[in-house]
Amino acid sequence: xxxxxxxxxVEATKSHLSSPWASFVAILIAVLWTIPTFGLFVTSLRPQxxxxxxxxxxxxTKPEFTLENYSRVLFEGRxxxxxxxxxxxxxxxIVIPSTIIPITIAIFAAYAIAxxxxxxxxxxxxxxxxxxxxxLQMSLIPLLQLFSGGLHIGSVTVIPSFGITGxxxxxxxxxxxFGLPLAIFLLHNFxxxxxxxxxxxxxxxxxxxxKLFRQIxxxxxIPAIASFAIFQFLWVWNDLLVALTFGGGKREIAPLMVRLAxxxxxxGGDWELxxxxxxxxxxxxxxxxxxxxxYFVRGxxxxxxxx
Amino acid sequence: MxxxxxxxxxLEQATSKLTGLLITVAIFAIVVSLAFYLAERTSxxxxxxxxxxxxxxxxxxxxxxGLIAPAIRTLYLSFRDARGDNFVGLENYIWAFTQPEILQIxxxxxIWMLVAPIASTALGLTIxxxxxxxxxxxxxxxxIFMPMAISFVGAGIIWKFVYQFQPNDRVAEIGLLSQIxxxxxxxxxxxxxxxxxxxxxxxxxxxxxxTGFAMVIxxxxxxxxxxxxxxASMLDGASGWKRFGKVxxxxxxxxxxxxxxxxxxxxxxxFDIIRTMTGGNFKTSVIANxxxxxxxxxxxxxxxxxxxxxxxxxxIPLVAYNVMHxxxxxxxx
Lengths: 307, 333
Known about the structure:
- The complex is a heterodimer of chains A (307) and B (333).
- Chain A has helices at residues 2-17, 20-44, 48-53, 68-75, 84-115, 121-131, 137-149, 169-191, 196-204, 209-220, 222-238, 241-246, 256-266, 271-291, 293-304, and strands spanning 151-153, 156-159.
- Chain A has a two-stranded antiparallel ribbon.
- With 307 residues, chain A is an all-alpha fold.
- Chain A folds into two domains: 37-68, no CATH class; 85-135 and 163-304, Orthogonal Bundle (MetI-like fold), CATH 1.10.3720.10.
- With 333 residues, chain B is mainly alpha-helical.
- Chain B is globular.
């Protein structure tokens, strides 16, 4: 009864606070925010001559559309340059392992830090938190040297080079390393909050740390894993710097972003190809984003405003 | 026929890459499960130590090889020459703080760090307050948040098109900004080439992406303000503006600072936008872009490393603040 009363009161405050002016301004900003993307989309559907002779907003008066830009940019290569569809495949080949591997390693570590009793636990936790913000520029040169040449002290080879340069492997490894701090931090925050009684009850049942992980921690952490998976997926999909540095300039393994950045440099005036290409690269992350927005927001909040 | 053959080979390449992908994922899954399976079957006494090996060691090894050791090596390389062969003392740092081009870059990075976080946070806060007073804020918030899913490269292309300029007077403008300038009676210029305006135009792209982030975080913080406090302030007759300045902002002060510092770190590291939109030309370059150029274009590991260290030094105060903030929060719990 008291609760219902209170809720009524809250609703009353809410409706008192809600104002048509605020709504109007917010909607206006939202429309403004969408116009640049909308312009790109409309342009990607216009014939080349139209794009270069009139602004995209003129389609409102004389609409003329084609899918030719997409078929050209996706399937027609140029000399040694493969068509964009190949880069699309490369992006997938980079994104999937670069998401699965760090999450697996991170959930293990997060569980250990949250529930194992050992000395230096706090130190490791804060250390990982601090690592999160070290710019990855600090790692680029040494890691690249390690991947291409291995590690030698004097004439002793500590780590051989394995000849992985020019394959996807350096890119996967780099994304794994760079993604770990945030992954461990987010997953730790979640796993540490699992009810102690639940964990202890399972221990009394004779479940060891491995079983505990398999039967309780892993199934209960699925939402947190989903949150981070979306983060890492978007981050790797949208990345340019890591792929540029560790891809060794090879077209066979370069992802979409590398190709698009290259196209804006060399073919900056071919708006019919640039807009269609950019839209192709945007489509997947935006679809993932809209489908799983709730998990994404939850992850963001866990990462920055806690407690 | 030729086209058919070309498509055939494209398809073959794609299938072989995807098969490779599946095999990799399968191998990884098998290795992890096997390690787990074997460890689980050892005696309880062995498990006491083996659990660290399975759960904790992989992450620590990756972090050491990928972040800690390289950071130390970068520091070392920053005191050495282009190929890392000879010790050169502070030469690379002196270079960074005396070369006019690099000073320009440091100045630009400073502008980014100052303007981008304040603009994104102020806009995000405004929108958070506005949408808090809406009946159905869902769609508007989604649209403003959406650029977060778009890559900096994609955003760079979107905005490069907005800033497109047509030098030929007889041909219509196709860039929205130029057209708007014309409608308003100004003469459009080649925006992207005009320093220092172009740096601010690039910052707009970054703010366009980060505002959604600020909005989501601040919006959640505003929702968490206890209803009673707002009611009390309303009973006291505080107007909308007063309530915002005297109640809302102080209540979410901590969150505002977290948002500001997160975006500042992002602005400090900005690379893709510069690379896509100007390639660092026309006086728009920043540290992260020059670090890439020095290291992988000019192949000078000394100057490249020195720039990475300067970038790192810029981040340290922000990291220190965040760690302190986290410590306090944890001890309160």
